[in-house]
Amino acid sequence: MTNLQVAGQLASDQTFIILALRCWLYFRGTNLVTNYYGAASQLYFTLNLGDKPAFAAPCWYFPAGGGIWGATGNTGTGSLLNLGEASQAAILKLGRPIMVPVRQNFSVTAAWYTVGSTNALTTLNSAATEDQKVNLAPLAA
Prior knowledge:
Elements: E1 16-28, H1 32-42, E2 43-49, E3 52-58, E4 69-71, E5 80-82, E6 92-100, E7 106-112, H2 120-125, E8 132-140
Antiparallel strand pairs: 1-6, 1-8, 2-3, 2-7, 4-5
C-alpha cells in the first residue's frame, strides 16, 4: 500500500527533505537470533535519487535503535530481540539532510552480501515453519 500517485516519486511540486532514516525488522520463532544477526551483518540498503545512490549503509546502521537489542532466553522462541532499542529517539538522524527535488524519482534497494561461508538469505528462505518474518525498507522521516 502506498499513497504515491506516481510510482517512485512524490506528486507535490515541493522539495522533500529527508532528515532521518529508520528500518524495522521483525523475526520470531526458532531461528530469530540467527535471522537478526544475519540481517544485521549481511543486509545493505541504498537510497537512490534518480539513478544515483544518495545514501548506502548496512542494515544495523538504520536503527529502530542501532544494532541488535534485547535478551535471549534458553530457547529462541522465548527471546526478545529488536534492531535496536525500542524508543522514539532511536532513529538515524542524518548529519546533512537529503534533498529530493521536485518530481524526482527515488527508490530504496535492499541487497544481501554473504559474509564468509554463511548466507543469511538462505537461512531466511529455509526457515522453520513457526518462524515469523517482516522486513520493511528504511523509512524516511
